[in-house]
Amino acid sequence: MSGNKKILIIDDEQDVVSYFSEFFTDNGFETINAKNGKEGFDKALTDSPAIITLDITMPEESGVRAFKDLQENEKTKNIPVIIVTGISKDFKNFISSRKHLNPPIAYFEKPVNMHQLLLKINEILK
């Protein structure tokens, strides 16, 4: 990824965003935050993050819609997306069944084990 260590955190829960931002910053990443899918998609276009963590249930525009938008845009379709959500495992089956979408690179259920998430991010960005 040519040194790009930006993580875009898309989540409507401010405490989650703050915790993730602090954790990732402490581990050498720059963070960009968005509070809904629309804002997240716009920031992905303008800030070109190396990776995105994406919540699913959000106001204004859901993570499902944002994920679809990210996949369908030439500029953002190759950015790895990690789904971070409180939604059940049924969601993984749902999103994986969408034939027109590639599956996310990983799924993490809330509450997230941050050390496992960090390991996965570092593995993806190698």
SSE order and pairing:
Blueprint: E1 6-10, H1 14-26, E2 30-34, H2 37-47, E3 51-54, H3 63-72, E4 81-85, H4 90-96, E5 106-109, H5 114-124
Parallel strand pairs: 1-2, 1-3, 3-4, 4-5
Helix pairs in contact: 2-3
Quick synopsis:
The protein is an alpha/beta fold and 126 residues long. The protein has helices at 14-26, 37-47, 63-72, 90-96, 114-124, and strands spanning 6-10, 30-34, 51-54, 81-85, 106-109. A five-stranded parallel beta sheet has the order 2-1-3-4-5, sandwiched between helices.
Q: Can you describe what's shown?
A:
With 126 residues, the protein is of the alpha/beta class. The chain has one domain (6-124): 3-Layer(aba) Sandwich (Rossmann fold). Helices cover 41% and strands 18% of the residues. It has helices spanning 14-26, 37-47, 63-72, 90-96, 114-124; strands at 6-10, 30-34, 51-54, 81-85, 106-109. The chain has a five-stranded parallel β-sheet with strand order 2-1-3-4-5, sandwiched between helices. α2 (37-47) runs parallel beside α3. The longest helix is centred in the first third of the chain and has 13 residues, at 14-26. The relative contact order is 0.17. The mean pLDDT is 89.
